[in-house]
Amino acid sequence: MRSACLSLLLVTACWALPFRQSGFLDFMMEDEAGSGREDFLERASPVMPVGPVCPFRCQCHLRVIQCSDLGLKSVPEDIPDDTTLLDLQNNKITEIKENDFKNLKGLHALILVNNKISIIHAKALSPLTKLQRLYLSKNMLKDMPANMPKSLQELRIHENDISKIKKNSFQGLSHVIVMELGSNPLRSAGIEDSAFADLKRVSYIRIADTNITEIPKGLPSSLSELHLDGNKISKVTAGGLKGLKNLAKLGLSYNEISSVENGTLANVPHLRELHLDNNALISVPAGLSDHKYIQVVYLHANKIAAVGTEDFCPPGLNHKKAMYSGISLFSNPVPYWEVQPITFRCVFDRSAIQLGNYRKK
Ligand SMILES: *[C@@H]1O[C@H](CO)[C@@H](O)[C@H](O)[C@H]1NC(C)=O
Ligand SMILES: *[C@@H]1O[C@H](CO)[C@@H](O)[C@H](O)[C@H]1NC(C)=O
User: Fold this and answer.
1) Which ligand is nearest to the CA of 263?
2) Global pTM?
3) What value, to the nearest 5°, has the Cα angle with vertex 169 and ends 273 and 267?
4) Could you tell me the residue range of the domain that residue 347 belongs to?
5) Less Cβ around it within 10 Å: N or C end of the chain?
């Protein structure tokens, strides 16, 4: 039987036999000094029946290929052509080469977060004609990847070393919905006008914790959330938000804003949430009382010294379509006992107002 198995080894028939399989393995191990079971399996594997390929040490399930946390220095070569999700996060990949994704025509999601990528070959992403999600955060990229697929819906590229967004950086990306660009060494001068113009369906843009000093120009009118927290913006001009008729949330916390130009809020008629806390405002932004839909206004930690009775609510309730559900004013120099209760007559509930906690110096 042993010799029968041996001669059959090349056609692997013995694997199918329950009969004394372990004995057979024992024999192989005795016979080959220093060879263990793994060793034996590896040598036998080239002639094993070919199942779906899975790159060495990765985990493959259906069409999802998981190769995270493996210390990989480059993209594995033998990724199955029909892969839909490829997870390569938390590795040590330094470069994406021209042919790394050559055959992955069905790939929907590519996760490369937390590697050491500084170069993506200009043609590396071109074959990925179905790619919807590209996650490149926490790398060392100095430029936006070239030729990103037109199918892209979500680009996450925060925490890199990108200092410029060029006119053609997002060319043709008309399906992008979500864009996360924060924590890059961006300055306003590094963002070319109309760099965002092609993003005709974009709904969410976040550019937080950079060095930009103004709201980027030419943002698409499809935008519903704009998060610009933690930047160096010093004033909000009415023109900066012109045309953003769908904007519902605007995040400008932790900037250096000392003024919001009158007319700004009129340019964003559907705004619901405005975060202006932790800035340098000396008064409540003009136009709140005329705004029909605004419900949440964070103004805490500013330099607001006085609050007037018509700063938030119109004289009559008639043209306000939504009540406020959140207003914060604490950590401002205005003493809360000087703010008249009638100031908040168009607030849904008293608990929606945060006034106190002003620290006396
Ligand atoms: C912003 O500029 C300062 C001063 O030049 C620099 O130290 C800092 O790293 C920059 N921040 C970012 C996010 O690039
Ligand atoms: C803002 O502009 C409106 C309309 O032009 C005007 O009625 C209002 O007085 C202005 N408010 C301030 C604070 O300048």
Assistant:
1) 2
2) 0.83
3) 30
4) 281-360
5) C
- Judged by average pLDDT, the poorest of 83-87, 148-152, 182-186, 353-357 is 353-357
Which residues lie with the beta carbon below 6 Å from any ligand 2 atom?
Answer: 262, 286
Instruction: Kindly report the CATH number assigned to the domain that includes residue 94.
Output: 3.80.10.10
If you take atom 13 of ligand 2, which residue's CA is the nearest one? 286
| pLDDT-above-70 percentage for the chain | 83
**Does some domain include residue 302?**
yes
Strands in the chain per DSSP E? 59-61, 64-66, 85-87, 95-96, 109-111, 119-120, 133-135, 154-156, 178-180, 204-206, 225-227, 235-236, 249-251, 259-260, 273-275, 296-298, 326-328, 353-354
Q: How confident is the model at residue 12 (pLDDT cuts 50, 70, 90)?
A: very low
Q: Which of 262, 265, 284 to mutate to test the pocket of ligand 2 (most atoms within 8 A of CB)?
A: 262
